[in-house]
Amino acid sequence: MSKINWHRLFGLTLMDLLADSNYQVELEKELSLKKQYLDVVIIRKTIGKPLTEIPVGLDNLTEHNLLTYKSWREPLDEWAIEELIGHYTNYRKRVSPSGEELLPTNQFQLYAISTRYPQQLLSKPIYFQELQPGVLEVTWGTRLIRLIVLSRVSLENHNALWLLFSGQAQGFVYGEQHYHWHQPSERAVLNQLYELYQREEVVMPYTMEDFEKNFTREHLHLLPPEERLKGLPPEERLKG
Residue 199: which domain range? Predict the structure, then answer.
């Protein structure tokens, strides 16, 4: 399974999280003629509702927020951080009035989000501090990068989105039960996410069939009557 599925699902859930807020999400932002893509950009808007409850680590959102995301099998290493810095440099040039008139650095925030704890990266001679469980701040040159480790965030309602991508069955189940979808139709990404976990051989507490039954039962009311009755024989349709 290619990484693009993990990254796109991650971006789609962030898009749902910030729906109707004063931020918008752009996925796979193209930054050069060679089609180098940044995973997610969160941009502050002039309209929309202010954010009231967000996952840990996103409390310092500013005008332009650049995110790199590493899933269960991908390492968050030195190269990933260097690549994020490079994306930031290109992005800042593109959104500024001109090359001579760059937007100030305080309008940009960088995030490195990883399912696994980046042991190899943090064993290097770099300065970092843990702000709270699963959230660290790394000094990289002149930049501060917010590092969020999804497998280490606490089991709390406001972290439900992160927990969906925690790489742990307990986290996924908690996230599936507690994340409030702003756009209910987007909840369909959970089917794909569940399948990805199965392919990564993460042992789930229930089967795909159980998950699909629960998912369908919870969203049956969203289907029009003709769709709900499709496939039933006439005698079954007349019951009740």
Answer: 3-223
